[in-house]
Task: structure prediction
Amino acid sequence: MSNTDTFAPAEEHHYGPIGRLYHGLTKVDFVGRRKIWFSVSLAIIVIGLGSLGIRGFNLGIDFKGGSSWEVQAPNTTIAKMTTAVKNAGLPDPSVEKLGSKTYQITADINSLNSTQQLNLTNKVVNVMAKAAGTSPDQVSTSSVGPTWGGQITDKALEALIIFFIAVVAYISIRFEPKMAVAAFVAMIHDLLVTVGVYSLFGLQITPDTVIAILTILGYSLYDTVVVFDRVRDNTNGVLKGGDLTYSEMVNLSMNQTLARSINTSLVAIMPVLAVLLIGADLLGATTLQSYGLALFVGLMSGAYSSIFIASPLLAWMKEREPRYHDLAARVTVRGDRRVLTATSAAVAGAQMTSTSVRPLRTSAVTGTIQARARKQKRR
Result:
C-alpha cells in the first residue's frame, strides 16, 4: 500500500457535494480555467462599455443639475404622466416609476429665470397631482443647480481615487505588490461591471449609487483579502515542500476558503434582496432602491471577481517569477504536477474547518507528497 493510499481518508467518500464544500475538500481548478473566467468578464465589460459609449449614463439631478418632482400615483401610467407634464410645458421630461406607486419626473430648467422656473414648477405640480388623483401638497419638489451637480461629481471621483490609492498601499504593505495589483484589477472589474449594468438598463445614478459602489468595492476587497491571507499561509507552508506549483497552491487555498466566500456572499446579498423586493416594491420605500440595486449588482460582481479574477490573476503573475517558474518546471519533470488531488484536498480539509483558516506550515499535504517522493527515489 502506498503512502498516498495510507493518507486517503474515508471521509472523502462519506461527504456529499455540500459536505465536501464545507470541509474544504472540493477540487475546482480555478487557475487552470482562468481563460474562461477572464473571457466571461471581458464580454460583460465590453457590452457595458459599448452601452456607455452609445447611451451614456442616466445621471440624477444631483450630478447634472435640474429639478425633480415625485408623487404617489397608483392609478396612472408612465405614458399618462409624461403626457401631462409635457402639456404643462416641461421640456424633455424623464419619467420613472419607483417601486409600485411612486413616479419621479426630472428635467433641466436651470436655463429659465427664477420667475419662469417658479411658474413652471407650479404647473407641473398641479398636473401631476391631477394625474395622480391627489392634492398638490402631496407632490414633493427639489432643485439642484449645475454648479452643485458638478461639485458632487468631482467629490465622487475624488473619493473613488482616494479609495483605490489606500487599498493598493495597504495590500502592498500587508501582503505584496502583486497581490495589490490583482486586488486592484478585481475592484476595477467590479466597478466596470456595475456601471455597465447601469448604463445598459438606463438605471439612474444618484449619490446613493456612489455610496453603494464604495461599499461593494470594500466588500469585494474583504473577500479577496481572505483568500490572499490563505495563499500567504500556504506559501509559507505547503509550497515550501517543493512538490506543488504556485498555481496548484492557489487552487488549494481557494478550495479551502470557497465555503467561506460563498457564505459571506449569501449573507450580504440576501438582506439586499429583501430591501429591493420587500422594502422598495412592497412597502414603497423607494429611497432605498438606488442604493439597494447598486449593492446587489456590485455584490454579485464582487463575489465573482474575488474567486474567479483576483486569485487566478495572482497565480498567472507569480508563475512568471523565476523561482516559481523553475519550481513548476521541476514539478513537471518529476511527474507530480496536478491541479488538486483528492488526497491533498482531504488532508488539508481535515486540518481546518469551514469557519477557521489556520496556517499549514507543517501540513500533512507536504508530508504526504514528500514521503511519496522519497519512496519513488528508493525504487
